[in-house]
Amino acid sequence: MNDGVTHMNRWKPLMRAAVKDQLLCELEQQRTVSDAEIQWLRKTRQELEDSRNRLSALYDNAPVAYVTLDKKGRIQGLNETASRLLGYPQNKILQLPFTFLVGRDEVNSFLTYLDRCHRSDASKVVIELKLRTRSRKPIPVQLVSVSYTQGGTELFQTAIIDLTDRKQNELALEQAKAFAESIVETVHDPLVVLNEEFKIVSV
To answer: Do 157 and 146 meet the contact criterion of CB atoms below 8 Å apart?
Structure first.
């Protein structure tokens, strides 16, 4: 009996060492797994950061000007294109009411538009008006707003489309039409104007 106990006592240190080695091995495995997970998280974080930077660059350099408005019409954000169009640095215009940029005679129209944005179930709300740039030069624009919620706050992502070229083209067409009509009116002989389908346009 004593021999058996002595025999067991002799093996206890070896058994404890074996258990200790096994625990150390398991800890090393867990550390290896943890290190791999940390590396994966770092890589994922970097990829997300790179993706965010790319999206931010695309947003800032988009061909269309964008501003983000809150429900009170205050500017919460804008891209570089909007900054260039309006003539204001981004940090100088944040938190200002958008009415600051709207011509005095169109402020009520904009406020009605903002109310429509707030109440509308449509995918977008559109208005045409004139904005005042930093140089005080009025520019005709079209606003296209879409509402979304961020952190429980309702915001309106708004595209500002410069209509200057379109308005200039429309004005040129109107002037050309008026000029053509004035020529027709000065002709003393009977005159009929036909279109390409030989239908009478004017007499």
So the answer is: yes
101-134 b/e (C-beta count within 10 Å ≥ 16 → b): bbeeebeeebeebbeebeeeeeeebebebbbbee
Tell me how far apart the alpha carbons of residues 69 and 155 are, in angstroms, rounded to a whole number: 6
Look up residue 186 and give its two tokens: 């000065």
Each residue's pLDDT tens digit, 163-177: 887 766 566 556 556
3-state secondary structure of 162: strand
DSSP class of residue 45 equals: H
108, 73 in Cβ contact below 8 A?
no
Three-state SS at 65: strand
Q: Could you give the CA distance from residue 1 to residue 166 in angstroms, rounded to a whole number?
A: 108
